[in-house]
Amino acid sequence: MLVNLDAVLKPAREEGYAVGAFNVYSLETISAVYRAALECRAPVIFAFGERYIDVANIKVIASMVRTLALDTDIPMVLHLDHCKDIAVIYRAVTAGFTSVMFDGSQLSFDDNLDGSRRVVEFAHSVGVTVEAELGSVPFDAAGAEVPEEYLTRSDEAARFVQATGIDALAVAVGTAHGEYKGKPKIYHDRLGQIASAVPLPLVLHGGSGIPDEDVVKAIGAGIAKINVNTQISSAAVKCMKEITGREKPGALPDIMKEVEDAMMSEVKGFIRLFLANKSM
Ligand SMILES: [Zn+2]
Q1: Which of 81, 103, 167, 214 is catalytic?
Q2: Which residue from 51, 74, 61 is spatially nearest to 25, judged by alpha carbons?
Q3: End-to-end CA gap in the chain
Q4: Architecture field, domain 2-229+264-278
């Protein structure tokens, strides 16, 4: 079943679990996420980032995800991840995406608010949901500790949500994209303040490598969507290295299948951690 973010995130925030958003950019990544969702009987979000536009054709990705999602009763979302360009958001919606993220986190508060509001106006008119980001989740994951000035402020978050009408808010509470160089420091107090000020489902980016107890605590506080990419990508690369190191690595279709299986098992691990399998 193909749905928008609201359909999967509202119950998640209410009932205290999170839905995984997994990056997809090929048939194998899509199949891995799809098969994991079916096995766990849990909703999932297929996330195709603006930065993958040169990797895979956005219309083909949309067709593949839609074809699979329409073939099951499990709720699935086709989501455009991190997009700064409103023209690409139009393209995604035209291609059949049910949800988009407008990433104005590098803009001023006012420009981020204006851009998000414009995207919401357009997207909501066609039943597409919108995620926006306030504060900044760093892209380099250089250190284990994100400086406090990057974090989302609860007063601003409340004002932003009210003024834009977005459906989900990505918050900066200490996580970062990529691989952490040490144990990340999650600002749980800040997350609690934001969650009290904002009734919307909150989104955690940089979900790879966060200690399980921090993930569970964050979900308890109001995180309803968790983005994961690095750990799944690393599992695939590790699997490929292992295969190509063999005396007879085999033919490409068999290699791709094995890599897909490795990614699927990683995705299943995250789904179980996020307790999404309790939602069906
Ligand atoms: Zn992200």
Answers
A1: 81
A2: 61
A3: 13
A4: Alpha-Beta Barrel (3.20)
The per-residue pLDDT for range 142-184, each reduced to its tens digit, is 566 788 888 999 999 999 999 999 999 999 999 999 888 888 8
Q: How far apart are CA 103 and CA 197, in angstroms?
A: 21
Residues 6 or more apart in contact with residue 174 via CB below 8 angstroms: 145, 146, 151, 184, 185, 186, 187, 190
How close is the Cα of 82 to the center of ligand 1, in Å? 6
Task: Give tens-digit pLDDT for 8-53.
Answer: 999 999 999 999 999 999 999 999 999 999 999 999 999 999 999 9
Cα separation, 149 vs 144, in Å, equals 15
| Cβ burial 138-152 (10 Å sphere, 16+ → b, else e) | beebeeeebeeeebb
DSSP three-state, residue 165:
coil
Q: Rounded to the nearest whole angstrom, what is the distance from the C-alpha of residue 170 to the centroid of ligand 1?
A: 8
Q: Give the predicted TM-score (pTM) of the model.
A: 0.95
Q: How far is the CA of 175 from the centre of ligand 1 (A)?
A: 10
Cβ neighbours of residue 270 closer than 8 Å, sequence gap 6 or more? 20, 22, 207, 226, 228, 231
Distance, in Å, from the CA atom of 243 to the CA atom of 47, rounded to the nearest integer, reads 27
CA–centroid distance, residue 245 to ligand 1 (Å) = 32
Query: Is residue 54 classed as helix, strand or coil in its secondary structure?
Result: coil
Give me Rg for the CA atoms of the chain. 18
Question: Which residue, 118, 124, 149, 150, is CA-closest to 137?
Answer: 150
89 φ/ψ angles, rounded to the nearest 5 degrees:
-65, -45
Is 81 a residue of the active site? yes
Write down the domain spans for the chain: 2-229+264-278
